[in-house]
UniProtKB/TrEMBL annotation:
GO terms for molecular function: metal ion binding; phosphatase activity. The keyword Metal-binding applies. It comes from Alteromonas confluentis. InterPro entries: HAD-like_hydrolase, HAD-like_sf, HAD_sf. This is Haloacid dehalogenase.
């Protein structure tokens, strides 16, 4: 049976699918706290929140302890409400053959609610959360290894698909898994993935071709 590990944000749904207004209160807090950031840096920081985890952003922009704690408190209580819209092909994951997992970097409450709001939870055998609010971070390779041991298969038999060259693609490569970078809008192609696709339809065709 085919085994697939999916990233979630910017792979199955856009990172900002919940609506960018959900982070406006946090941005106001940070604007008040982080006066050392230029307008350009602050704009870059806000954009990063839709693609990178809080701990990465806090380190990159040298957040004060006050801002870091404000960010942690904000994300720990955050939850997606109602339904959210994925990419045009997102629902394909529900019918795609195979044993499917999600490994996602983000706060568990928020990520769990987004997966449910996107109508995708039942597609997966299990979901693992690499939660910045629960240090120390284990990293995605830790959870990928759990999947391999749970399924009792060689890493080479596992497909890993996601957008981030530095996160899931690097983690999959480190374990010898078949890595696929999905080139969603705004994603820069990286040479470190074994394969590249632009949609889940292409991904399914790739797996069938390499069965």
């Amino acid at each position: 049976m085919r085994i697939i590990i999916f990233d979630f944000d910017n792979c199955l749904v856009p990172g900002n699918a919940v609506g960018e207004n959900v982070l406006h209160p946090l941005f106001t807090l940070l604007e008040n706290n982080e006066n050392h950031l230029s307008a350009e840096q602050f704009a870059e920081m806000k954009a990063d929140f839709w693609r990178k985890p809080l701990d990465y952003i806090a380190e990159k922009f040298k957040f004060s302890e006050k801002s870091t704690q404000a960010g942690l408190a904000y994300f720990r209580q955050l939850e997606a409400k109602g339904s959210i819209k994925g990419y045009a092909d997102s629902q394909l994951v529900n019918t795609m053959p195979g044993t499917k997992y999600v490994v996602t970097s983000g706060f568990e409450k928020f990520q769990r609610s987004k997966i449910a709001a996107a109508g995708l939870r039942d597609a997966f055998k299990d979901v693992f959360y690499d939660d910045p609010g629960e240090p120390p971070r284990k990293g995605k390779a830790f959870y990928f290894d759990i999947v391999a041991r749970t399924e009792n298969v060689s890493p080479e038999d596992i497909w890993v698909i996601g957008d981030s060259a530095e996160s899931e693609i690097a983690a999959g490569n480190s374990l010898g898994m078949r890595t696929v970078q999905i080139l969603r809008p705004g994603i820069t192609k990286s040479d470190n993935a074994r394969y590249h696709v632009t949609s889940l339809t292409e991904f399914q065709e790739l797996m069938e071709h390499n069965a």
